[in-house]
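TA notes, week 10

Several of you asked for a full example with nothing omitted. So below is the full record: structure tokens for the whole chain, then the designed sequence directly under it. When grading your own attempts, check the secondary structure regions first.
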């Protein structure tokens, strides 16, 4: 082989060597497509857990009502505890109770044995979670409640367990199978615990008449807090309102509208009651009628949509969206304007 042919062959081998590893490196990283077998497993898990919740609903009895009565009558707080996966569920349960009107917090059972038992007062009650009802780490908390007459609610799937027998109010979950193939990993059991506690918390909410305003008290931040704002939280006050009499000329109304920048002016009678509103749309409809010489009462829209200061901001937004308008006057019980809420105000606080 000549030197030129030899160099060509060597270069070709080098190119092949650089290309081949690049392909082989990428191939293993390609995601495997989802298969019907994967979807079947997922559906089976959800079916098992859904069936467990149906069994739980059918199993509710007087013990549930006893637990509701006990928690409702507490002078102190509901202390929720659990170990492992049950502990993770217990933390969420405590948060749910605390945010829906039942003062509650989580105590880790291992930490309780090293001083945190002092967090449990004589007016409190303990809700202890254990799938088996024999969790060793719970023994000190159980003993503490028995010694100092602290009410104990035990949530377990084993009615003959130590936790169930020691509880003042045992809440026994149905023995539904776990969703994992080995029937061991906490799946169905933890779902049932969480759902059972949700049923307790919501029942207590309805018993107490826990309102949206109460809910906002515990959720002032985030989107939920924004959606529970009231009109009086976002409206412009009475001293900023663009108001005019019905017998005034539109020339004066235009000046008032321009100086307030709300895109409207409220029309009030001699008693200060809102009789109508003049908007940009009204101006366009009367543009060919020597507008500035007309009286406000001839141009205004009578009986406009309004709201109250105690209405939710989202309710005001719904009216605006339904009527394709951008502002609402806020009236008191006598029909007198006390404020104005604009779509920009709702956008500013994140309601819209």
């Amino acid at each position: 082989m000549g030197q030129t042919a030899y160099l060509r062959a060597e270069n070709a081998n080098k190119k092949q060597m650089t290309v081949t590893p690049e392909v082989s490196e990428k191939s293993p990283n390609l995601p495997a497509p989802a298969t019907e077998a994967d979807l079947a497993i997922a559906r089976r898990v959800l079916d098992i857990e859904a069936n467990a919740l149906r069994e739980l609903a059918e199993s509710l009895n007087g013990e549930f009502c006893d637990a509701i009565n006990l928690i409702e009558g507490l002078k102190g707080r509901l202390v929720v505890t659990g170990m492992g996966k049950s502990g993770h569920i217990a933390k969420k349960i405590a948060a749910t109770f605390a945010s829906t009107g039942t003062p509650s917090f989580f105590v880790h059972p291992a930490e309780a044995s090293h001083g945190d038992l002092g967090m449990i007062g004589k007016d409190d009650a303990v809700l202890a979670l254990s799938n088996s009802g024999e969790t060793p780490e719970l023994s000190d908390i159980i003993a503490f409640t028995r010694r100092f007459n602290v009410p104990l609610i035990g949530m377990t799937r084993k009615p003959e367990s130590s936790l169930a027998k020691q509880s003042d109010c045992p809440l026994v979950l149905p023995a539904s199978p776990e969703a994992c193939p080995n029937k061991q990993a906490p799946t169905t059991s933890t779902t049932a615990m969480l759902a059972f506690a949700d049923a307790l918390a919501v029942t207590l909410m309805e018993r107490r008449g826990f309102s949206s305003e109460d809910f906002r008290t515990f959720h002032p931040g985030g989107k939920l807090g924004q959606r529970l704002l009231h009109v009086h939280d976002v409206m412009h006050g009475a001293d900023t309102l663009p108001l005019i009499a019905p017998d005034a000329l539109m020339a004066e109304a235009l000046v008032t509208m321009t100086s307030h920048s709300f895109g409207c002016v409220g029309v009030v009678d001699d008693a200060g009651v809102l009789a109508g509103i003049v908007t940009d749309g009204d101006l366009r409809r009367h543009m060919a009628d020597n507008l500035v010489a007309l009286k406000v009462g001839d141009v205004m829209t009578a009986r406009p949509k309004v709201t109250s200061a105690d209405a939710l901001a989202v309710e005001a937004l719904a009216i605006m969206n339904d009527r394709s308008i951008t502002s609402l006057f806020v009236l008191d019980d006598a029909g007198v304007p006390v404020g104005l809420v604009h779509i920009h105000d709702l956008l500013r606080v994140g309601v819209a």
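The chain has a mean pLDDT of 87. Use that as a sanity check on your answer.
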